[in-house]
Amino acid sequence: MECRRCGKCCIRPILKLCEVGKEDNKELEKWLTNYHCEVFKDDKFMYLRLPFTCSKLDFNVKSGTYSCKDYENRPKICQEYNCTQERMVTEVLEKFKRGELK
Ligand code: SF4
Ligand code: SF4
Question: Where in the sequence is the domain holding 78, given as residue range(s)?
Fold first, then answer.
C-alpha cells in the first residue's frame, strides 16, 4: 500500500507488545511508569500506545503531509513498519475505546 504521509504511525504510535499471557511484568511496569503508556489487548496480543509524537516528525504546511526529518537514519522499527498491519492495530484501539475489549 502506498504511504499517504498522514503521519498517523509517528503520532502517538501503537506498538504490539507481546502475546497475551507472555508479558514480562517488569517490562510492562517500565512502560507504564516511565512512559505513561496506554495498554490494551485483544484475544491474541497486548499493545502499547505511546503518549507522545516522535520528535523527528515534520509537517509540510503547503502539502499538508508529514515526513521523517531523519528518514535515512530512522530506527529499525520504523524501517520495518507495515502500514496495513498497523491499521489493524488501530482498529483494535478503536474497539478498545468503544469498550469492546478488556
Ligand atoms: S505509513 Fe504512516 S504515514 Fe504512511 S499512510 Fe501509513 S500511517 Fe500514514
Ligand atoms: S523516526 Fe521518523 S519514521 Fe520513525 S516514528 Fe519518528 S518520524 Fe516516524
Answer: 14-97
Give the ligand with the smallest distance to the CA of 52: 2
| Residue 9 placed within a domain | no
For the chain, helix (H) and strand (E) counts, in that order, are: 3, 5
- Ranges of residues in the chain with a pLDDT under 50 are none
- The answer to whether residue 61 is domain-embedded is yes
CB 90 within 8 Å of CB 16: no
Query: Which phi and psi (to 5°) does residue 63 adopt?
Result: -90, -15
Given this model, what pLDDT does residue 45 score? 87
Give the residue, out of 2, 14, 53, 83, with the most ligand 1 atoms within 8 A of its beta carbon, to mutate for a pocket test.
83
Using the atom order of ligand 2, give the atom closest to the CA of residue 55. 6
Residue nearest to atom 5 of ligand 2 (CA): 10
Contact between 40 and 100 (Cβ < 8 Å): no
In a domain, 42, yes or no: yes
